[in-house]
Write a structure and sequence with these properties.
With 305 residues, the protein is mainly alpha-helical. The chain has one domain: ADP-ribosylglycohydrolase fold (Orthogonal Bundle). 63% of the residues lie in helices and 0% in strands. The chain has 15 helices and no strands. Helix 3 packs parallel to helix 6, helix 10 runs antiparallel to helix 11 and helix 10 packs parallel to helix 12. The radius of gyration is 18 Å and the shape is globular. Bound molecules: magnesium ion (MG). GO terms for molecular function: ADP-ribosyl-[dinitrogen reductase] hydrolase activity; metal ion binding. Pfam families: ADP_ribosyl_GH. InterPro entries: ADP-ribosyl_diN_reduct_hydro (IPR013479), ADP-ribosylglycohydrolase (IPR050792), Ribosyl_crysJ1 (IPR005502), Ribosyl_crysJ1_sf (IPR036705). Its EC number is 3.2.2.24.
Length: 305
């Protein structure tokens, strides 16, 4: 793996956690409420409806790290192992957990169900928000990206709109990690919108909810319209709504494009140190480890035997 790819990958993973930590402050607020309280929020200050400490991350980063660690510890992607990791995470009484995520994990605990029922109400961004480790892991062998993504997403979020958009984010992430070419990324997104005009964001009106179509529009609008990591994150955070998830995913794209050195030092210093350490370790491991899809039965045999 080239040095540039590593720099961009680390930028993306740290950028993701920084977007999460910063967006937690403005989650569920309107742009007007944010402005009257903070002017333009440009610092990691904590607070928000969850009352986070400055630099503390939320479920987005925690679930991603859980997923990444399951892959590393399991010697490959195994959905039962990923599911067990999420159960452990839920038992740790996380600061936040989405209702669709909670239901999916509970159904697994009670019935062993690894795939939630397909539902029009599962078009939230909860599968997407934790998918970055899969993109990083599959970079060396991209044929595994779609099947691993769909399996881990459907554990809690089984919806074709969420599938389409999550896979698209993966393609854009891969393009930026491998090439650092913003125009190439824009071409991918433009082609996607020609095929699926309902996702057009050319008349973006400030949609900012956790509905994955809003997440897509919000991030693409601000990412392609900005010229730095800092500008991208400030714009998405000050858009409010599902600000932590939206800024986290925007942080992946911006961190990949502009690289780890483009992240403002004042933000990097604020990020929870244990989280930053885990991100460094996982970035190295996920880029290096061979990409293996383990089947569920073999994993279960190994666990019982
Ligand atoms: Mg969150």
């Amino acid at each position: 793996m080239g040095k540039m790819v590593h720099t961009r990958a680390l930028g993306a993973y740290l950028g993701f956690a920084i977007g999460d930590a910063m967006g937690a402050t403005t989650e569920f607020m309107t742009p007007r409420e944010i402005e009257s309280r903070y002017g333009t929020l440009k610092q990691i200050v904590g607070g928000g409806w969850l009352g986070v400490k400055p630099g503390q991350v939320t479920d987005d980063t925690q679930m991603s790290l859980s997923l990444g660690q399951s892959i590393i510890d399991g010697g490959g992607f195994s959905l039962p192992r990923v599911a067990d990791g999420f159960v452990q995470w839920m038992r740790s009484k996380p600061i936040d957990i989405g209702s669709t995520v909670r239901r999916g994990i509970r159904e697994y605990m009670l019935q062993g169900q690894l795939e939630s029922a397909e539902s029009e109400f599962s078009a939230g961004n909860g599968g997407l928000m934790r998918n970055f480790p899969i993109a990083l892991y599959c970079l060396k062998d991209w044929q595994h990206f779609a099947p691993m993504t769909l399996r881990q997403c459907h554990f809690t979020h089984n919806n074709f709109i969420a599938d389409e958009i999550t896979l698209m984010f993966g393609e854009v992430t891969r393009c930026l990690l491998e090439t650092g070419d913003k125009l190439a990324a824009l071409k991918l997104v433009s082609r996607f919108i020609i095929e699926h005009p309902k996702y057009s964001y050319s008349r973006y009106k400030g949609e900012n909810s956790g509905y994955i179509v809003h997440t897509f529009k919000c991030i693409m609008h601000h990412f392609f319209d900005s010229t730095s990591f800092e500008e991208t994150i400030i714009r998405v955070v000050n858009q409010g709504g599902d600000a932590d998830t939206n800024a986290a995913i925007a942080g992946i794209l911006a961190g990949a494009l502009y690289g780890v050195d483009s992240i403002p030092r004042r933000w990097r210093k604020k990020l929870d140190r244990a989280i930053a350490h885990e991100i460094h370790l996982q970035t190295d491991a996920l880029l290096e480890l061979p990409c293996v899809m383990l089947d569920d039965a073999r994993t279960a045999d190994r666990a019982s035997g």
